[in-house]
Design a protein that fits this description.
This protein is an alpha+beta fold. The chain has two domains: 48 residues, no CATH class; 131 residues, Protein Transport Mog1p, Chain A (3-Layer(aba) Sandwich), CATH 3.40.1000. 45% of the residues lie in helices and 24% in strands. The strands form two sheets. Strands 2-3-4-7-6-5 form a six-stranded antiparallel sheet. The radius of gyration is 39 Å and the shape is rod-shaped.
């Protein structure tokens, strides 16, 4: 029997002792060591199967009271901070997206022809909006895809110059909020269950227009 045959036999049954294997082990120190290691391994396995180790329950020691209070305070502070972030983030994001949309239509600011009342009405109704404003003030009107809905995008001529109005039936805001973004001055104004965005380039005055639009925008109940 050679070493390969001996190790195959040992691997198949480490506890076996044939005459040929015993004769080989007497003359081969490496195979004797291998046989001993495999025998010990086999014994460990049999002991483990015969008597599974008992799981010990570790006693859970409560942390000191001061540590519990400190942890509770830190969790409460984090919750307040997180709530503040989530309250601010939606309107900040909305203002940023409105400005980006207006930047994507730069020619809207340079419209010089009044849009017909019928065309304006069609675009407003497509978005489920009724507007009481005099159509002569509107220099530009488009129905634009914004945040999953068609919204009216208007440019209105005011005493202070042109201003953009985007009517957002599906974007509620809690309070009237001013914003400055990328060279634009604007306001987000709540209207019922939605809002309007009014903005102009630079530091133009839009307070009067924002207040006017807040009163003159109405939602159609059957709009989707």
């Amino acid at each position: 029997m050679n070493c390969q045959e001996a190790r195959l036999q040992i691997g198949a049954d480490p506890m076996a002792h044939s005459a040929e294997l015993q004769e080989h082990l007497e003359g081969c120190a490496d195979c004797r060591r291998f046989h001993a290691e495999m025998g010990a391994f086999e014994a460990d396995i049999r002991r483990a199967l015969a008597r599974p180790p008992q799981l010990q329950r570790r006693a859970r020691v409560a942390p000191p009271l001061w540590r519990q209070l400190a942890l509770a305070a830190s969790v409460a502070a984090a919750a307040v901070l997180l709530a503040g972030v989530w309250l601010l983030r939606p309107t900040e994001s909305l203002a940023r997206e409105v400005v980006a949309h207006v930047q994507g239509e730069p020619n809207s600011w340079f419209a010089t022809e009044h849009i017909s009342a019928a065309d304006i009405d069609a675009k407003l109704r497509q978005a489920g909006v009724v507007l009481d404003i005099n159509s002569d003030q509107i220099m530009y009107a488009q129905s634009c895809w914004f945040r999953g809905h068609y919204v009216p995008h208007l440019v209105v001529q005011t005493a202070h110059g042109p201003a953009t109005v985007i009517i957002l039936k599906h974007e509620p805001v809690r309070t009237r909020q001013a914003f400055q973004e990328s060279g634009f001055s604007g306001e987000l104004v709540p209207v019922g269950t939605g809002s309007i965005a009014v903005l102009t380039r630079g530091d133009g005055n839009i307070d009067d227009l924002a207040a006017q639009m807040q009163q003159e925008v109405h939602w159609m109940p059957d709009a989707h």
